[in-house]
Design a protein that fits this description.
homotrimer, globular, 6 strands, five-stranded mixed β-sheet
Chain lengths: ~170, ~170, ~170
Protein backbone atom coordinates (compact mmCIF):
# COMPACT_ATOMS: atom_id res chain seq x y z
CA UNK A 1 0.00 0.00 0.00
CA UNK A 2 1.41 3.38 -0.96
CA UNK A 3 2.00 5.77 1.93
CA UNK A 4 -0.56 8.55 2.35
CA UNK A 5 0.63 11.74 0.63
CA UNK A 6 2.18 14.26 2.98
CA UNK A 7 0.02 17.20 4.01
CA UNK A 8 1.17 20.73 3.12
CA UNK A 9 2.22 21.29 6.74
CA UNK A 10 4.27 18.08 6.65
CA UNK A 11 5.88 19.04 3.35
CA UNK A 12 6.73 22.52 4.64
CA UNK A 13 8.47 20.87 7.61
CA UNK A 14 10.34 18.40 5.41
CA UNK A 15 11.54 21.23 3.20
CA UNK A 16 12.91 23.00 6.29
CA UNK A 17 11.25 26.27 5.32
CA UNK A 18 11.63 29.16 7.73
CA UNK A 19 8.05 30.35 7.69
CA UNK A 20 7.55 33.63 9.54
CA UNK A 21 5.05 33.76 12.40
CA UNK A 22 2.89 36.83 11.81
CA UNK A 23 1.15 36.32 15.14
CA UNK A 24 4.28 37.05 17.16
CA UNK A 25 5.04 39.87 16.86
CA UNK A 26 1.64 40.64 15.34
CA UNK A 27 1.55 41.50 11.63
CA UNK A 28 -0.25 44.74 12.44
CA UNK A 29 2.56 45.89 14.67
CA UNK A 30 4.87 46.61 11.78
CA UNK A 31 2.48 47.38 8.98
CA UNK A 32 0.21 49.64 10.96
CA UNK A 33 -2.72 50.53 8.84
CA UNK A 34 -2.70 47.57 6.49
CA UNK A 35 -4.40 44.30 7.30
CA UNK A 36 -2.90 40.97 6.39
CA UNK A 37 -5.89 39.33 4.74
CA UNK A 38 -9.62 39.40 4.12
CA UNK A 39 -11.91 36.37 4.10
CA UNK A 40 -15.38 36.23 2.62
CA UNK A 41 -16.96 32.85 2.06
CA UNK A 42 -14.21 30.51 0.92
CA UNK A 43 -12.26 33.32 -0.70
CA UNK A 44 -9.05 34.51 0.98
CA UNK A 45 -7.45 37.72 -0.29
CA UNK A 46 -3.95 38.42 1.03
CA UNK A 47 -2.31 41.83 1.30
CA UNK A 48 0.80 42.58 -0.75
CA UNK A 49 3.76 40.36 0.19
CA UNK A 50 7.42 41.24 -0.39
CA UNK A 51 10.74 39.39 0.01
CA UNK A 52 11.80 40.45 3.48
CA UNK A 53 12.84 39.02 6.81
CA UNK A 54 10.40 38.93 9.69
CA UNK A 55 11.92 42.13 11.11
CA UNK A 56 11.19 43.96 7.85
CA UNK A 57 14.69 43.91 6.36
CA UNK A 58 14.43 43.77 2.57
CA UNK A 59 16.34 40.73 1.37
CA UNK A 60 16.34 41.61 -2.35
CA UNK A 61 16.27 45.35 -2.99
CA UNK A 62 16.91 46.65 -6.51
CA UNK A 63 15.88 46.11 -10.11
CA UNK A 64 15.96 43.09 -12.36
CA UNK A 65 18.17 43.63 -15.37
CA UNK A 66 20.43 45.91 -13.36
CA UNK A 67 21.08 45.26 -9.65
CA UNK A 68 19.67 41.73 -9.62
CA UNK A 69 20.14 38.65 -11.80
CA UNK A 70 17.28 36.39 -12.85
CA UNK A 71 18.48 33.87 -10.26
CA UNK A 72 18.29 36.51 -7.53
CA UNK A 73 14.83 37.47 -8.73
CA UNK A 74 13.78 33.82 -8.56
CA UNK A 75 15.09 33.63 -4.99
CA UNK A 76 13.21 36.83 -4.14
CA UNK A 77 9.98 35.33 -5.45
CA UNK A 78 10.63 32.15 -3.46
CA UNK A 79 11.32 34.21 -0.32
CA UNK A 80 8.05 36.09 -0.79
CA UNK A 81 6.30 32.75 -1.38
CA UNK A 82 7.60 31.46 1.97
CA UNK A 83 6.28 34.64 3.58
CA UNK A 84 2.96 33.88 1.86
CA UNK A 85 2.87 30.59 3.75
CA UNK A 86 3.12 32.57 6.98
CA UNK A 87 0.26 34.81 5.86
CA UNK A 88 -1.84 31.74 5.06
CA UNK A 89 -1.19 30.30 8.52
CA UNK A 90 -2.22 33.65 10.01
CA UNK A 91 -5.42 33.66 7.96
CA UNK A 92 -6.42 30.00 8.20
CA UNK A 93 -4.47 28.57 11.13
CA UNK A 94 -2.81 25.89 9.01
CA UNK A 95 -1.57 25.32 5.47
CA UNK A 96 -3.77 22.22 5.46
CA UNK A 97 -6.84 24.47 5.32
CA UNK A 98 -6.01 25.57 1.74
CA UNK A 99 -8.39 24.14 -0.86
CA UNK A 100 -6.36 25.67 -3.68
CA UNK A 101 -4.51 28.69 -4.90
CA UNK A 102 -6.63 30.86 -7.17
CA UNK A 103 -4.43 33.58 -8.69
CA UNK A 104 -1.29 35.57 -8.10
CA UNK A 105 -0.16 38.85 -9.59
CA UNK A 106 3.62 39.15 -9.39
CA UNK A 107 4.83 42.75 -9.68
CA UNK A 108 8.53 42.87 -10.54
CA UNK A 109 10.73 45.97 -10.70
CA UNK A 110 12.96 45.92 -13.78
CA UNK A 111 14.81 47.92 -16.39
CA UNK A 112 13.16 48.73 -19.74
CA UNK A 113 15.09 45.98 -21.55
CA UNK A 114 14.29 43.15 -19.14
CA UNK A 115 11.79 40.57 -20.41
CA UNK A 116 12.26 37.38 -18.37
CA UNK A 117 9.53 38.16 -15.86
CA UNK A 118 8.18 34.65 -16.18
CA UNK A 119 11.44 33.12 -14.94
CA UNK A 120 11.30 35.32 -11.86
CA UNK A 121 7.67 34.53 -11.05
CA UNK A 122 8.42 30.80 -11.28
CA UNK A 123 10.16 31.15 -7.92
CA UNK A 124 6.74 31.61 -6.35
CA UNK A 125 5.05 28.83 -8.29
CA UNK A 126 7.71 26.18 -7.72
CA UNK A 127 7.69 26.71 -3.95
CA UNK A 128 3.91 26.35 -3.90
CA UNK A 129 4.11 23.21 -6.01
CA UNK A 130 6.61 21.76 -3.56
CA UNK A 131 4.33 22.44 -0.60
CA UNK A 132 0.81 21.95 -1.99
CA UNK A 133 1.37 19.65 -4.96
CA UNK A 134 -0.01 20.09 -8.48
CA UNK A 135 -3.67 19.97 -7.47
CA UNK A 136 -3.87 22.84 -4.99
CA UNK A 137 -0.50 24.51 -5.62
CA UNK A 138 -0.93 25.84 -9.15
CA UNK A 139 -2.36 29.33 -9.60
CA UNK A 140 -3.35 31.57 -12.44
CA UNK A 141 -0.56 34.10 -12.73
CA UNK A 142 0.59 37.26 -14.41
CA UNK A 143 4.14 38.63 -14.05
CA UNK A 144 4.10 42.37 -14.51
CA UNK A 145 7.17 44.57 -14.86
CA UNK A 146 6.76 47.79 -12.89
CA UNK A 147 8.57 51.05 -12.23
CA UNK A 148 9.12 50.61 -8.53
CA UNK A 149 7.87 49.45 -5.14
CA UNK A 150 8.10 50.86 -1.63
CA UNK A 151 11.59 50.87 -0.11
CA UNK A 152 13.21 49.54 -3.28
CA UNK A 153 11.70 46.10 -2.95
CA UNK A 154 12.19 44.21 -6.22
CA UNK A 155 8.96 42.23 -6.10
CA UNK A 156 5.49 42.13 -4.56
CA UNK A 157 2.88 39.36 -4.66
CA UNK A 158 -0.90 39.78 -4.71
CA UNK A 159 -2.31 36.38 -3.83
CA UNK A 160 -5.90 35.06 -3.84
CA UNK A 161 -6.75 31.57 -2.64
CA UNK A 162 -9.63 29.36 -1.60
CA UNK A 163 -10.02 27.82 1.83
CA UNK A 164 -11.64 24.49 2.65
CA UNK A 165 -14.17 26.09 4.94
CA UNK A 166 -15.84 29.49 5.19
CA UNK A 167 -15.50 31.51 8.41
CA UNK A 168 -19.21 31.13 9.20
CA UNK A 169 -19.01 27.37 8.89
CA UNK A 170 -16.11 27.00 11.34
CA UNK B 1 -23.59 55.68 29.03
CA UNK B 2 -21.20 56.24 26.17
CA UNK B 3 -22.77 57.62 23.01
CA UNK B 4 -23.29 55.13 20.17
CA UNK B 5 -20.41 55.31 17.71
CA UNK B 6 -21.13 57.37 14.62
CA UNK B 7 -22.04 55.47 11.46
CA UNK B 8 -19.83 55.85 8.37
CA UNK B 9 -22.45 58.12 6.80
CA UNK B 10 -22.45 60.30 9.92
CA UNK B 11 -18.66 60.44 10.00
CA UNK B 12 -18.50 61.35 6.32
CA UNK B 13 -20.87 64.24 7.04
CA UNK B 14 -18.89 65.37 10.10
CA UNK B 15 -15.70 65.37 8.06
CA UNK B 16 -17.39 67.62 5.49
CA UNK B 17 -16.28 65.39 2.62
CA UNK B 18 -17.45 66.38 -0.84
CA UNK B 19 -18.50 62.95 -2.03
CA UNK B 20 -19.41 62.86 -5.72
CA UNK B 21 -22.86 61.63 -6.73
CA UNK B 22 -22.37 59.11 -9.53
CA UNK B 23 -26.12 58.83 -10.04
CA UNK B 24 -26.44 62.40 -11.26
CA UNK B 25 -25.12 62.72 -13.88
CA UNK B 26 -24.91 58.92 -14.25
CA UNK B 27 -21.45 57.34 -13.98
CA UNK B 28 -21.98 55.68 -17.33
CA UNK B 29 -22.55 59.00 -19.01
CA UNK B 30 -18.90 59.94 -18.86
CA UNK B 31 -17.15 56.62 -18.77
CA UNK B 32 -19.13 55.05 -21.57
CA UNK B 33 -18.20 51.46 -21.84
CA UNK B 34 -16.92 50.89 -18.33
CA UNK B 35 -19.21 49.94 -15.49
CA UNK B 36 -18.74 51.31 -12.00
CA UNK B 37 -18.90 48.09 -10.00
CA UNK B 38 -19.80 44.43 -9.96
CA UNK B 39 -21.49 42.61 -7.08
CA UNK B 40 -21.58 38.88 -6.57
CA UNK B 41 -22.63 37.54 -3.20
CA UNK B 42 -21.21 39.88 -0.57
CA UNK B 43 -18.26 40.79 -2.76
CA UNK B 44 -18.15 44.26 -4.34
CA UNK B 45 -15.53 44.94 -7.01
CA UNK B 46 -15.12 48.58 -8.01
CA UNK B 47 -13.79 49.85 -11.32
CA UNK B 48 -10.57 51.86 -11.38
CA UNK B 49 -10.84 55.16 -9.49
CA UNK B 50 -8.67 58.22 -10.11
CA UNK B 51 -8.22 61.61 -8.40
CA UNK B 52 -10.57 63.79 -10.42
CA UNK B 53 -13.47 66.17 -10.00
CA UNK B 54 -16.99 65.01 -10.79
CA UNK B 55 -16.75 66.61 -14.24
CA UNK B 56 -13.70 64.52 -15.03
CA UNK B 57 -11.03 67.18 -14.50
CA UNK B 58 -7.83 65.52 -13.29
CA UNK B 59 -6.86 67.12 -10.00
CA UNK B 60 -3.35 65.64 -9.76
CA UNK B 61 -1.79 64.96 -13.17
CA UNK B 62 1.89 64.09 -13.37
CA UNK B 63 4.51 61.84 -11.82
CA UNK B 64 5.70 61.36 -8.28
CA UNK B 65 9.37 62.22 -7.88
CA UNK B 66 9.11 64.82 -10.61
CA UNK B 67 5.90 66.88 -11.06
CA UNK B 68 4.37 65.93 -7.70
CA UNK B 69 5.63 65.86 -4.11
CA UNK B 70 4.80 63.05 -1.69
CA UNK B 71 2.31 65.42 -0.01
CA UNK B 72 0.56 66.00 -3.34
CA UNK B 73 0.53 62.26 -3.97
CA UNK B 74 -1.03 61.72 -0.54
CA UNK B 75 -3.70 64.30 -1.38
CA UNK B 76 -4.31 62.57 -4.71
CA UNK B 77 -4.83 59.25 -2.94
CA UNK B 78 -7.20 60.92 -0.47
CA UNK B 79 -9.12 62.53 -3.33
CA UNK B 80 -9.47 59.15 -5.06
CA UNK B 81 -10.57 57.66 -1.72
CA UNK B 82 -13.35 60.25 -1.44
CA UNK B 83 -14.41 59.33 -4.97
CA UNK B 84 -14.40 55.71 -3.80
CA UNK B 85 -17.00 56.67 -1.20
CA UNK B 86 -19.20 57.92 -4.03
CA UNK B 87 -18.71 54.65 -5.89
CA UNK B 88 -19.67 52.71 -2.76
CA UNK B 89 -22.85 54.75 -2.37
CA UNK B 90 -23.64 54.03 -6.03
CA UNK B 91 -23.09 50.31 -5.51
CA UNK B 92 -24.70 49.85 -2.08
CA UNK B 93 -26.91 52.90 -1.56
CA UNK B 94 -25.14 53.89 1.67
CA UNK B 95 -21.70 53.75 3.26
CA UNK B 96 -23.40 52.03 6.19
CA UNK B 97 -23.86 48.92 4.04
CA UNK B 98 -20.09 48.23 4.04
CA UNK B 99 -19.13 45.20 6.12
CA UNK B 100 -15.44 45.84 5.53
CA UNK B 101 -12.81 46.77 3.02
CA UNK B 102 -11.04 43.75 1.56
CA UNK B 103 -8.10 44.93 -0.55
CA UNK B 104 -6.86 47.84 -2.58
CA UNK B 105 -4.20 48.01 -5.27
CA UNK B 106 -2.82 51.52 -5.54
CA UNK B 107 -1.10 52.17 -8.89
CA UNK B 108 1.14 55.24 -8.70
CA UNK B 109 2.99 56.88 -11.60
CA UNK B 110 6.55 57.78 -10.61
CA UNK B 111 10.11 58.30 -11.75
CA UNK B 112 12.63 55.43 -11.56
CA UNK B 113 14.22 56.81 -8.37
CA UNK B 114 11.01 57.26 -6.37
CA UNK B 115 10.46 54.74 -3.57
CA UNK B 116 7.96 56.26 -1.12
CA UNK B 117 4.91 54.63 -2.63
CA UNK B 118 3.69 53.61 0.79
CA UNK B 119 3.48 57.22 1.95
CA UNK B 120 1.30 58.04 -1.05
CA UNK B 121 -1.04 55.07 -0.58
CA UNK B 122 -1.57 56.06 3.06
CA UNK B 123 -3.75 58.89 1.79
CA UNK B 124 -6.34 56.29 0.83
CA UNK B 125 -6.05 54.27 4.03
CA UNK B 126 -6.23 57.21 6.43
CA UNK B 127 -9.41 58.56 4.83
CA UNK B 128 -11.04 55.14 5.09
CA UNK B 129 -9.97 54.84 8.73
CA UNK B 130 -11.54 58.23 9.44
CA UNK B 131 -14.84 57.16 7.89
CA UNK B 132 -15.14 53.44 8.70
CA UNK B 133 -12.95 53.07 11.79
CA UNK B 134 -10.27 50.42 12.39
CA UNK B 135 -12.64 47.46 12.14
CA UNK B 136 -14.09 47.93 8.65
CA UNK B 137 -11.75 50.62 7.31
CA UNK B 138 -8.46 48.77 7.03
CA UNK B 139 -7.66 46.92 3.80
CA UNK B 140 -4.94 44.71 2.50
CA UNK B 141 -2.89 46.91 0.20
CA UNK B 142 -0.10 47.02 -2.33
CA UNK B 143 1.34 50.28 -3.68
CA UNK B 144 2.75 49.70 -7.14
CA UNK B 145 4.86 52.18 -9.09
CA UNK B 146 3.86 52.22 -12.75
CA UNK B 147 4.89 53.82 -16.04
CA UNK B 148 1.71 55.77 -16.68
CA UNK B 149 -2.07 56.02 -16.57
CA UNK B 150 -4.67 57.40 -18.95
CA UNK B 151 -4.65 61.17 -19.35
CA UNK B 152 -1.58 61.62 -17.15
CA UNK B 153 -3.40 60.69 -13.95
CA UNK B 154 -0.85 60.11 -11.18
CA UNK B 155 -2.78 57.38 -9.37
CA UNK B 156 -5.51 54.78 -9.79
CA UNK B 157 -7.21 52.62 -7.14
CA UNK B 158 -8.52 49.08 -7.59
CA UNK B 159 -10.78 48.44 -4.61
CA UNK B 160 -12.52 45.28 -3.40
CA UNK B 161 -14.87 45.29 -0.43
CA UNK B 162 -17.51 43.26 1.33
CA UNK B 163 -21.11 44.35 1.78
CA UNK B 164 -23.37 43.50 4.72
CA UNK B 165 -25.94 41.86 2.47
CA UNK B 166 -25.89 40.10 -0.88
CA UNK B 167 -28.02 41.43 -3.77
CA UNK B 168 -30.27 38.34 -3.72
CA UNK B 169 -30.97 38.81 -0.03
CA UNK B 170 -32.07 42.43 -0.34
CA UNK C 1 -42.61 39.60 -33.06
CA UNK C 2 -38.97 40.56 -32.75
CA UNK C 3 -36.47 37.71 -33.15
CA UNK C 4 -34.91 36.39 -29.95
CA UNK C 5 -31.58 38.09 -29.31
CA UNK C 6 -28.59 36.04 -30.37
CA UNK C 7 -26.71 34.19 -27.65
CA UNK C 8 -23.02 35.01 -27.09
CA UNK C 9 -22.04 31.77 -28.84
CA UNK C 10 -24.20 32.74 -31.84
CA UNK C 11 -22.75 36.25 -31.94
CA UNK C 12 -19.19 34.91 -31.72
CA UNK C 13 -19.96 32.69 -34.73
CA UNK C 14 -21.56 35.56 -36.66
CA UNK C 15 -18.51 37.72 -36.03
CA UNK C 16 -16.31 34.97 -37.46
CA UNK C 17 -13.97 35.11 -34.48
CA UNK C 18 -11.11 32.63 -34.42
CA UNK C 19 -11.42 31.56 -30.82
CA UNK C 20 -8.56 29.34 -29.66
CA UNK C 21 -9.37 25.91 -28.25
CA UNK C 22 -7.41 25.56 -25.02
CA UNK C 23 -8.48 21.95 -24.65
CA UNK C 24 -6.59 20.83 -27.72
CA UNK C 25 -3.70 21.01 -27.23
CA UNK C 26 -4.33 21.45 -23.51
CA UNK C 27 -3.64 24.88 -22.00
CA UNK C 28 -1.37 23.28 -19.43
CA UNK C 29 0.82 21.79 -22.12
CA UNK C 30 2.35 25.11 -23.03
CA UNK C 31 2.05 27.08 -19.84
CA UNK C 32 3.30 24.35 -17.56
CA UNK C 33 2.96 25.51 -14.04
CA UNK C 34 0.22 28.07 -14.50
CA UNK C 35 -3.44 27.14 -14.47
CA UNK C 36 -5.94 28.76 -16.77
CA UNK C 37 -8.64 29.69 -14.28
CA UNK C 38 -10.03 29.24 -10.81
CA UNK C 39 -13.72 28.95 -9.93
CA UNK C 40 -15.22 29.44 -6.51
CA UNK C 41 -18.96 29.86 -6.24
CA UNK C 42 -20.07 31.94 -9.21
CA UNK C 43 -16.74 33.75 -9.40
CA UNK C 44 -14.37 32.90 -12.25
CA UNK C 45 -10.81 34.23 -12.09
CA UNK C 46 -8.78 33.86 -15.27
CA UNK C 47 -5.01 33.71 -15.49
CA UNK C 48 -3.13 36.46 -17.34
CA UNK C 49 -4.00 36.59 -21.06
CA UNK C 50 -1.76 38.04 -23.78
CA UNK C 51 -2.15 38.74 -27.51
CA UNK C 52 -0.70 35.62 -29.05
CA UNK C 53 -1.58 32.85 -31.48
CA UNK C 54 -2.58 29.43 -30.21
CA UNK C 55 0.99 28.18 -30.74
CA UNK C 56 2.34 30.90 -28.45
CA UNK C 57 3.64 33.30 -31.12
CA UNK C 58 3.36 36.86 -29.83
CA UNK C 59 1.28 38.84 -32.29
CA UNK C 60 2.04 42.30 -30.91
CA UNK C 61 5.45 42.53 -29.24
CA UNK C 62 6.82 45.94 -28.30
CA UNK C 63 5.87 49.16 -26.55
CA UNK C 64 3.09 51.64 -27.11
CA UNK C 65 4.39 55.07 -27.98
CA UNK C 66 7.42 53.53 -29.68
CA UNK C 67 7.13 50.23 -31.58
CA UNK C 68 3.33 50.18 -31.67
CA UNK C 69 0.64 52.70 -32.63
CA UNK C 70 -2.57 53.13 -30.66
CA UNK C 71 -4.38 51.24 -33.43
CA UNK C 72 -1.98 48.32 -33.05
CA UNK C 73 -2.46 48.42 -29.29
CA UNK C 74 -6.22 48.34 -29.80
CA UNK C 75 -5.85 45.31 -32.06
CA UNK C 76 -3.62 43.64 -29.46
CA UNK C 77 -6.29 44.18 -26.79
CA UNK C 78 -8.93 42.76 -29.14
CA UNK C 79 -6.72 39.75 -29.89
CA UNK C 80 -6.27 39.12 -26.15
CA UNK C 81 -10.03 39.52 -25.72
CA UNK C 82 -10.66 36.81 -28.33
CA UNK C 83 -8.23 34.59 -26.43
CA UNK C 84 -10.24 35.40 -23.30
CA UNK C 85 -13.29 33.90 -25.02
CA UNK C 86 -11.32 30.68 -25.43
CA UNK C 87 -10.39 30.75 -21.75
CA UNK C 88 -14.04 31.24 -20.82
CA UNK C 89 -15.07 28.25 -22.94
CA UNK C 90 -12.36 26.21 -21.21
CA UNK C 91 -13.63 27.30 -17.78
CA UNK C 92 -17.38 27.17 -18.37
CA UNK C 93 -17.88 25.03 -21.47
CA UNK C 94 -19.75 27.78 -23.32
CA UNK C 95 -19.84 31.57 -23.60
CA UNK C 96 -23.55 31.27 -22.85
CA UNK C 97 -22.68 30.36 -19.25
CA UNK C 98 -21.39 33.89 -18.53
CA UNK C 99 -23.68 35.86 -16.22
CA UNK C 100 -21.54 38.97 -16.62
CA UNK C 101 -18.05 40.35 -16.73
CA UNK C 102 -16.91 41.73 -13.38
CA UNK C 103 -13.59 43.51 -13.85
CA UNK C 104 -10.51 43.61 -16.03
CA UNK C 105 -7.08 45.02 -15.35
CA UNK C 106 -5.32 45.82 -18.61
CA UNK C 107 -1.54 46.07 -18.22
CA UNK C 108 0.01 47.89 -21.18
CA UNK C 109 3.72 48.34 -21.89
CA UNK C 110 4.50 51.90 -22.99
CA UNK C 111 7.02 54.69 -23.10
CA UNK C 112 7.08 57.36 -20.37
CA UNK C 113 5.26 59.89 -22.60
CA UNK C 114 2.38 57.66 -23.65
CA UNK C 115 -0.99 58.46 -22.07
CA UNK C 116 -3.71 56.95 -24.28
CA UNK C 117 -4.01 53.72 -22.31
CA UNK C 118 -7.78 54.01 -22.36
CA UNK C 119 -7.89 53.87 -26.15
CA UNK C 120 -5.87 50.65 -26.10
CA UNK C 121 -8.02 48.98 -23.43
CA UNK C 122 -11.15 49.77 -25.44
CA UNK C 123 -10.09 47.00 -27.82
CA UNK C 124 -10.99 44.52 -25.09
CA UNK C 125 -14.23 46.19 -24.09
CA UNK C 126 -15.61 46.63 -27.60
CA UNK C 127 -15.08 42.97 -28.48
CA UNK C 128 -16.89 41.93 -25.31
CA UNK C 129 -19.74 44.31 -26.07
CA UNK C 130 -20.04 42.78 -29.54
CA UNK C 131 -20.28 39.27 -28.11
CA UNK C 132 -22.13 39.68 -24.80
CA UNK C 133 -24.07 42.91 -25.31
CA UNK C 134 -24.25 45.85 -22.90
CA UNK C 135 -25.79 43.90 -20.04
CA UNK C 136 -23.18 41.19 -19.48
CA UNK C 137 -20.35 42.55 -21.63
CA UNK C 138 -19.33 45.67 -19.73
CA UNK C 139 -16.69 45.37 -17.01
CA UNK C 140 -15.09 47.59 -14.47
CA UNK C 141 -11.66 48.40 -15.88
CA UNK C 142 -8.32 49.99 -15.20
CA UNK C 143 -5.69 50.48 -17.90
CA UNK C 144 -2.25 50.54 -16.32
CA UNK C 145 0.97 51.48 -18.09
CA UNK C 146 3.81 49.18 -17.08
CA UNK C 147 7.53 48.71 -17.65
CA UNK C 148 7.40 45.35 -19.36
CA UNK C 149 5.90 41.89 -19.69
CA UNK C 150 7.33 38.46 -20.38
CA UNK C 151 8.74 37.95 -23.86
CA UNK C 152 8.10 41.55 -24.89
CA UNK C 153 4.34 41.18 -24.95
CA UNK C 154 2.74 44.62 -25.15
CA UNK C 155 -0.34 43.82 -23.10
CA UNK C 156 -1.76 41.42 -20.52
CA UNK C 157 -5.34 41.08 -19.26
CA UNK C 158 -6.42 40.05 -15.76
CA UNK C 159 -10.09 39.16 -16.06
CA UNK C 160 -12.70 38.33 -13.42
CA UNK C 161 -16.24 37.29 -14.32
CA UNK C 162 -19.37 35.72 -12.94
CA UNK C 163 -20.91 32.48 -14.18
CA UNK C 164 -24.59 31.61 -14.25
CA UNK C 165 -24.05 28.55 -12.08
CA UNK C 166 -21.56 27.51 -9.42
CA UNK C 167 -19.51 24.31 -9.88
CA UNK C 168 -21.31 22.59 -6.98
CA UNK C 169 -24.68 23.28 -8.54
CA UNK C 170 -23.79 21.79 -11.90
Amino acid sequence: MAPAPASPEQRARELGLEIPDYNDPPYGGRYGQIKAFHRTGNLVMLSGITPEDRDGTRTHPGRLGDDLTIEQGYEAARKAAVNTLGMIRLALGSLDEVAGLARVLCFIVATPDFDKYHEVGNGFTELFLDVFGPEAGIAGRADVGVMGLSNRNCLELWVTLESRTAPDAE
